Amino acid sequence: MTTRLYSNELKALVVPESILEQPNVLQEKCLTIQWMNYKCQRERNNRGEAYGPTQPVEMEFTIRLNDTADAKPFYQMLPSNEHFCFSFLFNATFNQNERLNDYEDGMVCDGYVVGIDESYSASSNKEPNEKQMLLNIKLLLLNTTYIGRDKNYTSIFIHQN
Q1: 135-148, pLDDT tens digit by residue?
Q2: In the list 8, 28, 59, 73, which could disulfide-bond 139, CB 3.0-4.6 Å?
Q3: pTM of the prediction?
Q4: What 8-state DSSP symbol labels residue 70?
Q5: Residues of the chain with pLDDT > 90: what percent?
Q6: d(Cα 85, Cα 111) in Å, to the nearest integer?
Q7: Mean residue pLDDT across the chain
Q8: What sign does the CA torsion over 130, 92, 111, 43 have?
Q9: Nearest residue to 70 via CA among 133, 121, 10
Q10: For the residues of 104-139, what is the DSSP string, one character each?
């Protein structure tokens, strides 16, 4: 039997769905982000207003999986020509029913899975013969919606030429 390692002190989580459509997220669907790289910028005029199309934006993140079966949805997305939503939550807390209670900030990214790399590492929290899987995922983004504490949000649409 595999034990799942959960904590209410997680700094960054990803959920492979949009929390704008389904905010009632179970803790077991959240995956811990180990590393993340994301840069989105636009041209600005002399008044500081954004104009023109954004450049294609790649997001890369690494998640820790407690079970290799948790990787299946990502591998199913890879050969697809469809875009998918991912919700990134920062400083999230959960209630006693293991449902999302609150988060400090977040963003919902809509994009294509264009690359997956995996690596395995032994953990001192598990049996010596059990390994944890690290999954590095690369997304090509279509749009990003930034979400604040009181469900206020701003969307950035990324147009490609």
Answers
A1: 999 999 988 888 87
A2: 59
A3: 0.77
A4: G
A5: 31
A6: 7
A7: 80
A8: negative
A9: 133
A10: SEEEEEEEEEEEEEEEEEE-TTS-TT-EEEEEEEEE
